[in-house]
Design a protein that fits this description.
Belongs to the universal stress protein A family. This is Universal stress protein. There is one protein chain. Helices cover 49% and strands 22% of the residues. It is of the alpha/beta class. Strands 3-2-1-4-5 form a five-stranded parallel β-sheet, with helices on both faces. Helix 1 links the parallel strand 1 and strand 2. The chain is globular, with a radius of gyration of 15 Å.
């Protein structure tokens, strides 16, 4: 039985669908939802050092995304929000392991076949590397 469900969120439509699915699972299993926003500093780091203004803007954007996910959850379901920085796939897996998550529910970016092969996909990496079950919502 899933008692702690990790839901990585990024503000995309796929992420919103994952939140909706995670809510249904949490209601059925009486589980806690743990929303995680990961600021992908790899995409932002043109130079080795990021300005405080950039980090602050990214943090604010993440808080908006987390707040929206939290507002979708009906009362009676336990929930918590977390924000991290780093490479999303690595941070998600580390968070899931460190916090003993029972399941990960995440959206698929829907990369095309060519892009998926060349760039890889966060959701695919999570499915392959996770020690707990992963549900990818399209």
């Amino acid at each position: 039985m899933s008692r702690n469900i990790l839901v990585p969120v990024d503000g995309s439509e796929g992420s919103d669908r994952a939140v909706a699915q995670a809510i249904a699972l949490a209601e059925a299993c009486e589980a806690k939802l743990n929303f995680l926003y990961v600021a992908n500093i790899n995409q932002l780091a043109i130079n080795a050092c990021l300005s405080d203004a950039i980090l602050e803007a990214v943090t604010k954007a993440g808080n908006v995304i987390l707040d929206r996910a939290m507002e979708m959850v009906p009362s009676g379901i336990e929930k918590e929000a977390f924000s991290e920085t780093g490479s999303p796939a690595v941070v998600i897996l580390d968070f899931a392991t460190t916090n003993e998550m029972d399941m990960i529910v995440m959206g698929s970016r829907g990369l095309g076949v060519v892009k998926g092969v060349l760039l890889g996909s966060v959701s695919q990496y999570i499915v392959e590397q996770s020690k707990c079950p992963v549900l990818v919502v399209k």
